[in-house]
Amino acid sequence: MTFSTSCHSHSDAGPHSDHPRCGGWKSILLALASLFALTPCLLSEEAAVEKPAADGKEPHRTDWLHKAKWGVMFHYCSNMMNMMGSKDAAGNKINYNDGATWNKTIQDFDVPGLAKQLEEIGAGYFLITAKHCGNPIAPNKAYEQKNPGLCPKRDLIMDLADELAKHDIKLMLYYATGMGVPPVPDTAKASAAVIEEFSMRYGKKVAGWWLDNSVSDVSVQKIIADAARAGNPEAILAYNQARAPKRNSPYDDYTAGDTHAPGNVRCSGRFVSGAQWHILSPLSGNWAGICKTRGNPRFPTGKAVGITAGHTSRGGAVTWDVPYLASGLLDPAIHDQLKAIGQALAQQPGK
Q: What pLDDT is stored for residue 243 in this prediction?
C-alpha cells in the first residue's frame, strides 16, 4: 500500500554427460527416469494449494464477500493519527505512539457507536488495521515481547467482532506483514507469530485478512497464510503487491486491489484467475483522509456511487478506506456519501 507520507513501523522480528538424441534408447530411458525422479521437485508450491472455484457454481470462501458487495476500512494506527495533528485541551499535539496515550485512545473507541453507523450506511463488512504503522489495536504477547509497552490493554478487535456480529456485519483485519524486510524468512516468521496469536484468539470472528508488504516467494506467503488461517480455516486472504485487481498468490481468495484510481479499473466478472474481484481505495484524498482536504470526499457523490455500483453490478466487491475520528466514529464529512452508496447498492439484485 503506497502512502504519500513516511510511516515508521515497529518490527515484528552436475549436468548429464550424454544427450538422449545422441545416445540411443539407453540414453532416452535414462533421461526419462531422471525426469520422473525430478518431477516432485519441479512442481511449484502453487500446485499443492487448494484452487478456488472460478465459476461461482460451487461454494467459495468469498461467497459472503460477493454478497456483501462493499465495505468500509479504517487505517486506525498511531502514526497516521499523529499526522492528523490532533491537540489536547491544553493545545499540545497528541503523540499517539506513546504507549499510555495509545492505551487510552483504544479504551475510548466507541464500538457500539461505530457499529450503529456501519449498519445505517449499509456496509456489509468492516476492515481495520490490526497493525499498520505504529502500535497494534489489541494486546498480543508475541508483539509485546519485542515491543514492550506498546500494546493496549483493551482487546478492541474482540469488542468490534462481538458488536458487529449483532448487526450482521463481518470483521476483517489488515496486517502489515514485514514479509519483504530482510532477512525475509525471519521477519515473516515474526509477523506470523503475531498473526497466529490473533487468529487463534478470534477464530471465526475474523472473516478475512488483507496482508500488506507481500513478497512473491510462495514459501514465505505460506508462512503467513498458515498463521492467518490457524484459528479459522475459512478466513479469506489477499496479498498486496500489484496496484490492480490481480491474483498475487495461490493463497489469494480475493484480490487486494490496492488503487488510488478506482474509476480506471474495470471489473469484467466476479473472478480473476480464481480469486474474487475486489478493490481497496481511499474515498477521500489519501488513506485515512490524511491530506490537505482532510476528511472531505474526493469524488462527487454521484461518481462515488457510480464507481461502486458499476463494479459490484459485474460481480466485484469494493472497500472504501475512509477518514475517521479518534473516537472511532466515521468522519461526519464522509458519512452522507457512504450512506448514498449503501442506499444505491441496496437496490442491486442479490443484496
A: 76
Cβ(267)–Cβ(28) below 8 Å: no
> How confident is the model over 257-297, as pLDDT tens digits?
999 999 999 999 999 999 999 999 999 988 888 765 667 89
Rounded Cα gap, residues 117 and 169, in angstroms: 11
Alpha carbon of residue 189 to chain centroid:
18
Best CA proximity match to 307, nearest among 267, 336, 350, 254 = 267
Q: Residue 315, exposed/middle/buried by CB under 10 A (0-12, 13-18, 19+)?
A: middle
Confidence at residue 5, expressed as pLDDT on a 0 to 100 scale: 43
What are the CA-CA distances from residue 59 to residues 38, 52, 54, 65 (Å)? 35, 9, 10, 12
What ranges do the domains of the chain cover?
62-345
1, 207, 215 from 169: Cα distances, Å: 25, 10, 30
Amino acid at 235: A
Q: Write the CB contacts of 304 (distance below 8 Å, at least 6 apart in sequence).
A: 283, 297, 320, 337, 340, 341
Q: Around Cβ 108, how many Cβ atoms within 10 Å? A: 11
Residue (of 308, 305, 250) closest to 279 by Cα position: 308
List of the chain residues with pLDDT < 70: 1-11, 13-57, 291-294, 351
Alpha helices in 128-277, H assignment, sequence order: 141-146, 156-166, 184-202, 218-228
C-alpha 54/C-alpha 74 separation (Å) is 30
What's 62-345's CATH class? alpha beta
Contact between 317 and 267 under an 8 Å Cβ cutoff? The reply is no
Q: What is the predicted pLDDT for the residue at 86?
A: 84
Looking at the DSSP bridge assignments, the partners of residue 208 are 172, 236
Candidates 283, 271, 319; CA nearest to 125 is 319
Give the model confidence (pLDDT) of 206-251 as tens digits. Answer: 999 999 988 889 999 999 999 999 999 999 999 998 778 999 999 9
